[in-house]
Amino acid sequence: MLIAFNKPFGVACKFTPEPGRKTLADYIDVPAVYPAGRLDTDSEGLLLLTDDGALQARIAEPRQKLAKVYWAQVEGIPAPAALKQLQDGVNLGDFTTQVADAKLIAEPQGLWPRDPPIRHRAQIPTAWIELTLREGKNRQVRRMTAKVGFPTLRLIRAAIGKLSVAGLPLGAWREIAPDTPWSRL
Question: What is the pTM of this model?
Fold first, then answer.
């Protein structure tokens, strides 16, 4: 079984109850499925869950190099040099990121409002960057954008492989049919 879930901001990627915090159990009542990878509590978007250990490893393991697409709303407007740094790899001190795809995009269409909304500063513009990574270290996108001078304000995972969050309402999930291997949702 493979489930695609559009995780809201503030939801912990676990089923174990946590006082004062929503978890996956508040949204998904399916026995014996587990997240294939993680998505930080303060990040939103596509999370895949499965009951298949081999599939879970294929999705989550960095050595599988499965592309993960993120939309990052950043503080400021990145210049081409900052995007090139993101593309070429960023030295984060404990590791240097692999080559990535990075480009400025318009605010994604059909984007749900975040609760709570991001902070707004009238004097500082924001921009959206689409980053495609084939690795997934803890808080990697946030660390990358901060390192090149553009802190992430909002982070959404838009796709994993060929599966996309498109058309999946916030807080909703759907089962991916077994005969639809890695097709678009």
Answer: 0.93
